[in-house]
Design brief:
heterodimer; A: about 110 residues; mainly beta; seven-stranded mixed beta sheet; four-stranded antiparallel beta sheet; B: about 130 residues; globular
């Protein structure tokens, strides 16, 4: 199975700053079938990005995704107060679908 | 508006089974897949399997093969996930999540999970 490793584990930033989250796969992900989710405490995950770089419906354009092969990045251009949460990458290129361990973006 | 409404919290003893439901509304049920994902306390999300709501085809993670069964009732726009032989490590929040799919003549292709239910807490304890 494809193992996804996210870094850093925790990102401490202030509102207005830029956040860069990394997701590395143990093998190449076919067709860039990688998505990103945001999860807040006590809530279900929310789809942000699919196909490595396509924003889901209703997602603000401060969220962007990039990458291919084994290296992917989620960038939040300017952090808003509601963006402090845990972010997961997930691959759907091969079964079983797998998730990264998450990156927590916290207020500095 | 798309909604997935899950059944309520469950408390089970080791060795028992649990069946969680997920009622869909706001879209054509049979045109999408339904996935099941769980999250144990402090752990990453874990994909358990999915069902093609149109033809009923299922795919399970090998980790759960033999213990999990995903079904659907198209007349009720509801998907179900049953997990058997429960152990304490199965204590988790279980989510259903809608998945876009592309149904072709001889195959179907499954893509990400775009709408999630709120989750059902399953506690396994003696």
């Amino acid at each position: 199975e494809i193992v996804l490793t996210q870094s850093p584990g925790t990102l401490s930033l202030s509102p207005g700053e830029r956040a860069t989250l990394s997701c590395r796969a143990s093998q190449s992900i076919s067709s860039s079938y990688l998505s990103w989710y945001q999860q807040k405490p006590g809530q279900a995950p929310r789809l942000l990005i699919y196909g490595a770089s396509s924003r889901a419906t209703g997602i603000p354009d401060r969220f962007s995704g990039s990458g291919s092969g084994t290296d992917f990045t989620l960038t939040i251009s300017r952090l808003e107060p509601e963006d402090f949460a845990v972010y997961y990458c997930q691959q759907y290129g091969s079964s079983p679908w797998t998730f990264g361990q998450g990156t927590k973006v916290e207020i500095k | 508006q798309v909604h997935l409404v899950q059944s309520g919290a469950e408390v089970k003893k080791p060795g028992a089974s649990v069946k969680v439901s997920c009622k869909a509304s706001g879209y054509t049920f049979i045109r999408y897949a339904m996935h099941w994902v769980r999250q144990a306390p402090g752990q990453r999300l874990e994909w358990m399997g999915r069902i093609n709501a149109g033809n009923g085809n299922t795919k399970y993670s090998e980790k759960f093969q033999g213990r999990v069964t995903i079904t659907r009732d198209t007349s009720a726009s509801t998907a179900y996930m049953e997990l058997s032989t429960l152990r304490s490590e199965d204590t988790a929040v279980y989510y259903c999540a809608r998945g876009p799919m592309e149904q072709q003549l001889f195959a179907a292709y499954y893509y990400y999970m775009d709408v999630w239910g709120k989750g059902t807490t399953v506690t396994v304890s003696s």
